[in-house]
Amino acid sequence: MTISRKQFLASGIALTILAVAGCGTSTTPTSPGAGGTGPTIASLSPSTIEPSPSSQTLTISGTNFLTGLTFTLRSPDGTSSSYGSGSISNQTSTSFGVSVVINASGSWTASVKNVDGQESSATFSVAGAPSNSPPQILSITPGVLFRNASLQSFTINGQNFRSGATVVVTNPAGSEIQTTISSLSDNAILALATFNTLGNYSVMVRNADGSTSGLFSLTVSP
After folding, report:
1. Angle at 89 between CA 84 and CA 94, to 5 degrees
2. Phi, psi at residue 19, to the nearest 5°?
3. Do 136-221 and 40-126 fall under one CATH topology?
């Protein structure tokens, strides 16, 4: 009788386990790595990406990005390019920047692989044809700056400004002055420089591929 009772209980336990298992959600388990769970890609920016032969910076946002990760891009033709620490900047556990070349339109796949082997992927679309057109300055605001020994900001409005572009500002004596870019988009550049000499300055934009805009005149008044 004792043996029979144990068998009955064992059978009851087995049935209970099966009943609970049948009510759950089926998932595929993964082995936790150093970060506990694998990386996830939530978004990429800029939201609109144009093909270009020059490098451009993507910002990847998500979770569980570990130091030493590898970022991989697969192009529409299936070619893969991997980017390591030398191309990755400003990394935190939730975002990082990566300098990449996206030179074709179509569907691309971005993948993040942590050092523990766990990986996450996301697809994104690139529209249009690669633009090799040189940059063009249409206007600068404000139209007149005032002589000052401190940094002043000015906005260059135009088109075909590419990631990695630089701004060259020449003073009335013909010497280049130090200029810093604060932000850059395809049609606007916010720059900073010190204008401590009266007269006409010239401004030029040079893309990373070496193409340049024409010279644009900027007046500095008392």
Report:
1. 95
2. -65, -40
3. yes
Residue 132's pLDDT is: 66
- Span 152-200, pLDDT tens digits: 999 999 988 888 899 999 999 999 999 999 999 888 999 999 999 999 9
Q: Is the pLDDT of residue 131 over 80?
A: no
- In angstroms, the CA 69 to CA 114 distance is 4
**If you count DSSP H runs as helices and E runs as strands, how many of each does the chain have, helices first?**
1, 17
Domain boundaries, the chain: 40-126, 136-221
For the 40-126 domain, the top CATH level (class) is mainly beta
- Strand, helix or coil for residue 118: coil
83-104 b/e with 16+ CB inside 10 Å = b? beeebbeebeeebbebbbebee
DSSP lists the bridge partners of residue 212 as 206
Q: Please state the pTM of the whole predicted model.
A: 0.45
What pLDDT shows up at residue 6? 40
What fold does the segment set 136-221 form as a domain? Immunoglobulin-like (2.60.40)
